[in-house]
Amino acid sequence: MDQLIDEVKLSNALEEIFKVVSRANKYIDETEPWVLGKSEDKRARLASVLYNLLETIRITSGLLYPFMPKTMPEVWKQIGASEDMVKLEKLGSFGVLPENVTVCKGAVLFPRIDAEKEIDELNKIIGNNTPADENAFKPVPLADEISIDDFAKIDLRVALVKACEKVKRSKKLLCLQLDDGMGGRQVVSGIAEWYTPEDLIGKKIILVANLKPVKLCGVESNGMICAADTPDGAASVVFPDQSLPCGTKLR
């Protein structure tokens, strides 16, 4: 965030914050605190989970304070954080809240947090610092026409990223282990510049499933994941409906 703020890339800075918010939501699904609370012998684990979430809220709300100065102090009241605990120099540390912190019930500040909607609303507030003509998106020219039979040769499937790691001999490649609903496969993708393994693990992607296997930096790749070219030259992975079963065919 420091670098993005210095570069006045406020929208990108907000996206980084909401990546943490999304991961915290996933953490709730993984740990199921409502289940832990039903068992006396799991109360210690429940306390640990809730503390981790409170610290995550403290840090993200502190980073959001410049954008939402009226709302974030209300968040601090509810999680038991003092103004000293949310100072910028303490937002890089985990474990600032006391272990016996007391939370209190307050008004519902975000009935349902929609990260993309929040970013859009905040972008309207902060404005756009880039001239309109620089923002104009120009699609690349269309490729040569193909028939429906040609398209039918491409087998697109939904697959879940079970594991992911960087390819040791490359700065650009990630090695993904996928559940494709058909026994699993390994795919190498050149997106390491824009994604970390943590960004992808647990998410479903779109797989070109019938590409011939190739070796990239000595690592075998059995397919390709679909990504879009962004206006700034980056790659943006295309994520399908996450409720679709692994192996679902796209057409």
Report on this structure.
With 251 residues, this protein is an alpha+beta fold. The chain folds into two domains: 2-126, Isoleucyl-tRNA Synthetase, Domain 1, CATH 1.10.730; 150-250, Beta Barrel (OB fold (Dihydrolipoamide Acetyltransferase, E2P)). The chain is 34% helix and 17% strand. It has helices at residues 2-6, 10-31, 33-36, 43-64, 72-79, 115-126, 132-135, 148-152, 197-200; strands at residues 156-166, 174-179, 185-189, 204-208, 214-216, 219-221, 224-225, 227-229, 235-237, 249-250. Strands 1, 2, 3, 4, 7 and 10 form a six-stranded antiparallel β-sheet that branches. The radius of gyration is 22 Å and the shape is globular.
CATH topology of the largest domain: Isoleucyl-tRNA Synthetase, Domain 1
Please report the distance between the alpha carbons of the first and last residues: 39 Å
What gyration radius follows from the Cα positions, in whole Å? 22 Å
Strands, total number? 10
CATH level-four homologous superfamily name of the largest domain? Isoleucyl-tRNA Synthetase, Domain 1
Low-confidence stretches: none
Mean pLDDT: 90
CATH architect. name of the largest domain: Orthogonal Bundle
**Integer tally of domains:** 2
Instruction: Give me the number of helical elements.
Output: 9
